[in-house]
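Thread: lipoate--protein ligase, structure

OP (GT): Posting the sequence first so everyone is looking at the same thing. Length is 354 residues per the record. Can we get the structure tokens written out before standup tomorrow? I want them in the notebook alongside the other entries.
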Amino acid sequence: MTILYVDISNGYKYIKEQPEIAQCLSVYFITNEKFKDSVLYFYRPVAPQVIVGANQNVHFEVDLDYIHSHGIALTRRGAGGGAVYVDSGNLTYSFTVNDDGTNYMNFKHFAQPVIEVLHSIGVDAEMTGRNDLTVNGQKFSGMSTLKIGDRFTCGGTLMLDVDLKAANEALNPPKSKLKSKGIKSVKSRVTNLRPYLKGAYTALTSDQLQEMILKHVFNSSSLDDIPTYVMTNEDWDNVKQIANSKFGDPDWVMGTTKTFANYHTRHFEGIGTVGINYSVEDGIITHAKVYGDFNNAGGNLEQIEHSLVGAPYKRDNLIEAFKTGDVQTNIGNVSPEDLADMLLDDQYKEELSK
């Protein structure tokens, strides 16, 4: 596999002005014709921000009052996955590759170089669940993927010195997701890598960690031997166009503000959390909106919503509606039966407090 390291360090002035620009880089490397081979880049936030997945409901996943009062930016990526809090103590890595039919959704494949580097410095990192990297049972990295045409991107965050208190206050994951992890809060689930760095690596910096990963991926002892492309002003102008056309649009970032009477969520192993906000009148579903942190960001969720609206609020009818909505294609390997049970069982009900 031919791979190119793309140095984005000259673009932090753009990212500082428009935090959403960082969420456009993967789209640019997927869609711009000058990048035909695999690409690896790294990104460190200039300022704190919360990044939500393409299909998430910010009104249930994020404490909007907290982030607004603390000057924390809110952005939405094109990829799926869950909400994350990032700041200057976080290092993000991202691969963009051509889809040959083998590694799309194979998170472990793209996390493996990071895991091997961490093992080499004494951190007992491992992949757990569908897309988390953990140490001692606590998460320090979440991953996401985005596919456009015959190319896709896959990468993740690496929490080195992130403000964990801010992360805990800013994020409000559904109770079904926390329950699936056997935890009560974000704080009890996540950790920084810093406490696990020993000896010569105690004071490891993000730059040093990035360099170690780069050398490992390229099997090189010198950065000078790594094929590198430095972003040009034209590149950044093109990325800004992507940001201005979609990713900076408040309607895209905030999503729908309509809240229906019921909100049920359920965590499905290997898929993620699926949430449906809906209303029922006279035994018929009148409104439905599908959310979630599942990584299939390109699914047609409106097909599911349209199938639900007008369906009787009974198990057999809901199962048929989910079948018509083709949930296997549009969300992932979840059964219509399980989704129907989710809507009918109050154990999956989330409080509509926002």
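GT: Both are above now. Quick notes for whoever picks this up: Residues 233-247 form the longest helix (15 residues). The two ends are 47 Å apart (CA to CA).
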